[in-house]
Amino acid sequence: MDPLYLRKATSQEHERVEGTLPLMTENLDRATYVSVLKSFYGFVKGWENWAAHRVPEAIRPELEQRRRSLMLERDLAFFQEPLPEDFYCPGLPAESPALLGSMYVLEGSTLGGQFIAAHVEKVLHLNRGEGDAFFVGYGEQTGPMWKRFKSVLADIPEADAETAVAAAKKTFLDFGSWMRKSAPQFAHSGAPGQVVHD
Predict the structure, then answer these.
(1) Cβ–Cβ < 8 Å for 110, 137
(2) CA dihedral for 101, 105, 106, 107, sign (positive or negative)
(3) What is the C-alpha to C-alpha distance for residues 126 and 151, in angstroms, rounded to an integer?
(4) What is the largest distance, in Å, between two alpha-carbon atoms of the chain?
(5) Who has greater pLDDT, 180 or 120?
(6) Which end of the chain is more exposed for a tag (fewer CB within 10 A), N or C?
(7) C-alpha span between 66 and 195 (Å, rounded)
(8) Which pLDDT belongs to residue 185?
(9) Burial code of 86-95, b = ≥16 C-beta within 10 A, e = fewer?
(10) Is the predicted pLDDT of residue 188 greater than 60, yes or no?
């Protein structure tokens, strides 16, 4: 499957999600930022818990290297915040194309995370990686790791492309719903969040 097809097929869902993240505003404060981190943690940790029981052994190493809930745990510890205990459950088919389509949403956000990290460091006066480890993500390895993930997507058979697309769309929509539910003040923010997929 061509990863570009996945990007184009989910562009509308992607655009809707960006309006739920009030992170790139100049008046961002710590309370709002920490609320975002908590909401992300519930979503990401829940997704990782679900995926851990469904990932094919061939790509398990890729999943293990990309456990971003650990980064969120570091961020919340930095702010001395307890970890949320309400977790997202994807409810997707237990098939490799569905898992990878859903994973596309989470992995693609690492690209936009670089912009968010730079912004929150400036606005909230954070040192890099201290309180924004999730958005710093893989740092200088972000580009190479994204390219490697795209090569995994490219191995999805064309016959399974629509399964991957449906899973990605559902994950985008679920993320927007999760953010509105867990942090209602974000629902109508209209502020871009830089969730970038190349």
Answers:
(1) yes
(2) positive
(3) 34
(4) 49
(5) 120
(6) C
(7) 17
(8) 58
(9) ebbebebeee
(10) no
> Distance between CA 102 and CA 125 in Å, rounded?
33
Measured between alpha carbons, how far is 9 from 11 in angstroms, rounded to an integer?
Answer: 6
Distances in Å between the Cα of 40 and the Cα atoms of 48, 65, 66 are 12, 18, 15
Q: What is the pLDDT of residues 154-173, one digit of tens each?
A: 999 999 999 999 999 999 99
Q: How many residues does the chain have?
A: 198
User: What pLDDT was estimated at residue 198?
Assistant: 57
CB atoms within 10 A of CB 177: 13
**Is the Cβ–Cβ distance between 167 and 92 less than 8 Å?**
yes
Q: Which two tokens stand for residue 145?
A: 């790791």
Separation CA 56–CA 17 (nearest Å):
28
Q: What is the pLDDT of residues 30-68, one digit of tens each?
A: 999 999 999 999 999 999 999 999 888 888 998 999 999
Q: According to the model, what pLDDT value does residue 22 have? A: 79
* Crossing angle of the two packed helices 161-182 and 11-18, in degrees rounded to 10: 10
195, pLDDT greater than 90: no
